[in-house]
Amino acid sequence: MFAGNWSEQIINFLVFILLARILGAEAFGLATMAMVFVVFSEFLVRQTLTETIVQQKNLEDGHLDAIFYLLALLSVVLVALLILLAEQIAQIYSEPRVADYLTWASPTVLFIGLSGVPVALLKRKLEFRVLAVRATVGIVTGGIVGVILAFMDYGVWCFIVQHVVKVFVNNALVWTANPWTPKWRAKKKHFHDVLSFSGQIVGLRITELISINTPMVVIGAYLGPGMLGQFTIAWRIVEVLSFLLITPIQYVAQPAFAHLDRASEAAGDLLAKITKISALVSFPSFLGMVVVSAPLVELLFGDEWVGAITAHKILCFVGIYLSIERIQQAYCLALGKVSALFYLSFAEALLGILLIITFVDYGIMGVAIAFAARYYIMWPFRFIIVSNYADRSLLQYLKVLVLPLINAIIMTFITVAWQQLMGANFSTFTLLASSVLVGLSTYCIVLWATMRTQVRELFKSLILLREKSNSF
């Protein structure tokens, strides 16, 4: 599963890099202005009602039919809203072209909604290889079309067409991999079950989406497409690394948390272990990325994108936050404790809007600072909520992060010292490669000196959990 997800993300990122180098920041920003609303709508049909299929124990055919028709209705409504409001959304940005981009990209919401049930059934059956293959085919097909159009000077339309082709192929293929077809077996009870179960997380997902997408809308409206393109690049790098690091751990943790809760075992102890594992992997990765941000952005995207470097360094701290927050959320969802997280996420979204609008006059650096600050201001409350659910004191829970953080900071200082000492003598590639090598070597040595027994035991536990998760 992990190899499939990683290959999917890596191919998608390579297409992203190629299009960015060909088309430049302004085209990227214009595409993002439209796509932020499309992706928001896609997420609403992808990550809400279908959770019932993945997590519900007593799943009936009526539930599947109810979800299909609800998703179809929701998708049609969202597509209609995107088309009807396209002109108004374009006015927010003072960019009339955005209306056409938004209108032509909107059908992807319907594609995802209509294939939501078969995709969720494949997840329920743990058919992750099938999901990875169809996603990869979609990414490659869309990427080829997008790159061809880029070389033919179609500008922003490259991104729109690439995304539509990718989503269409991706979701068309899923019907060939699953024999399920919709019928009318849904009763009132089935609709009630689906809505009551999914309703617990819909609000949480919406507030998370608002939090993540606020910077894009505000930058587009106040600073224009060029600055939005720079910010999009900075955030995309963080997103990809976050996905590659956190998803495997989260995949193992979710069924394990739920199983321990049902068995009345020490889920709190497991939370501490999983949190420490995530910190051991993500803290050095994101702090290391702060150190190598300049050569990384310059090498991958070219000189036009150096304006993204400062914002990227700041956004890496959001990556650190996400590496722990995703584990905390998985734990709370497994326990069925959603309401407190929803209210906290709602407060985060409101605070983020206020801070980002306040600091937008300082450019994308100001937006990045506000974006990260919002999460760190609210993070203590999340720790309090989760530690209470885990029946742990706050200090006891925070203690698991201390050594991983100290070790990552030591690695960071030594890598920075290396760059200061030797950086002037190296090319961009050599500086990047040598910095990664020095940082990785330093971190391994520090871990061996301070935590070798703990690390060995933690990763043994992770391997055992991965084996058990397939039987939960």
Structural account:
The protein is an all-alpha fold and 472 residues long. The protein folds into two domains: 1-222, no CATH class; 225-472, no CATH class. The chain contains 19 helices and no strands. Helix 1 (2-23) runs parallel beside helix 9 and helix 4 (61-84) packs antiparallel against helix 7 (107-114).
Please give a handful of descriptors for the protein shown.
mainly alpha, transmembrane helix, Membrane protein involved in the export of O-antigen and teichoic acid, 85% helix, 472 residues, cell membrane, membrane, 0% strand, 2 domains, transmembrane
Radius of gyration: 22 Å
Give the helix/strand class: mainly alpha
Span from first to last CA? 17 Å
The largest pleated sheet is described as: none
Instruction: Tell how many strands the DSSP assignment holds.
Output: 0
Give the overall form: globular
Helix proportion range:
over 70%
Oligomer: single chain
- So how many helices? 19
Strand content is under 5%
Chain-averaged pLDDT = 86
Q: Spans with pLDDT under 50 lasting ≥5 residues?
A: none
Number of domains: 2
How would you spell out the order of helices and strands? HHHHHHHHHHHHHHHHHHH
Family: Belongs to the polysaccharide synthase family.
Membrane topology: Multi-pass membrane protein
Subcellular location: Cell membrane
Keywords: Cell membrane, Membrane, Transmembrane, Transmembrane helix
